[in-house]
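Lecture 7, part 2: worked example. A protein chain together with magnesium ion.
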Amino acid sequence: MKGFWRKLVEKFSAGGGERVDWEALLLEADLGLALTGRLTRMLSEEGLLRKPPEGEERIRQELRSILAGDPPKVAHSEKPVVILLVGVNGGGKTTTAAKLAFRYGKEGKRVVLAAADTFRAAAVEQLEAWARRIGTLFVAGNPGADPASVAYRAHAQAEEEKADLLIVDTAGRLATKNNLMLEAAKIRRTLAKRDPQAPHHVWLVVDGTVGSNALSQATEFHRAVGLSGLIVTKLDGSAKGGMIAAVKEELGLPTVFVGIGEKLEDLEEFDADRYVDEFFGG
Ligand SMILES: Nc1nc2c(ncn2[C@@H]2O[C@H](COP(=O)(O)OP(=O)(O)OP(=O)(O)O)[C@@H](O)[C@H]2O)c(=O)[nH]1
Ligand SMILES: [Mg+2]
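Predicted complex, written out as structure tokens:
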């Protein structure tokens, strides 16, 4: 994610750096229409449009304040805490489920991983392989089984095993995108039948390199399923990461973790100050 901001400043500067097309710059940084509009108006009202260094500093401040606040924590509870991971195919749900199991397992939590992606047999095998490597409990359904029933069963088993945490991986590709949302919503309702507090966290796993498209994915999933946060993956690549601020601004949803690689350790708690520093080039 590092280094793109200076390139964009160069690209959208004119008059020897005196004038910056802030709107084009902020949009290209994936900050989305609403936030770009608000930041540009703010610079205009504060007389900073023609003062690039001060303007940049003001945007930096504003991003920090948008992203301020503690990320949600996985608390202790009588019944297993449930994390439901949703998102479109290839976003990194299965890998992230494994990374989370690894992370919380290291903290001493007893974790159950559930494969509620019964659409693709390979998806179950993928998660099972991770579970074996981490040495965590694993629950899956037969191919074609109702994913909601897999989640239900996984919850029962997690309770039986006195697990602290149940992490539910879901499908990313179904016949239609609408089906995908409906299925995620059904899994959510089914888990709530076992425990009205569950799922305690519904996190959208989204590929950071898709840019502002992440905002539309978040909007759709939030409407259909109800999200409590985001995990943005592949920030080790060419992602600009602006959508993290855009999603917080427009939907009020925090980014909880970021993915920075394909290995189990490559998941970091989101740190707003660090994010803002890296956004502007470290
Ligand atoms: N570089 C990088 N690659 C990642 C990251 N997270 C996941 N990936 C890779 O992205 C690809 C897709 O990841 P999956 O975890 O299978 O994605 P998914 O959302 O489960 O996909 P579906 O099951 O098809 O919905 C894999 O090759 C992962 O290794 C990340 O943070 N950085
Ligand atoms: Mg998957």
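Residues 93-94, 117, 123, 169, 172 surround magnesium ion (ligand 2) (CB under 6 Å). The chain has a mean pLDDT of 93. Keep this in mind for problem set question 3.
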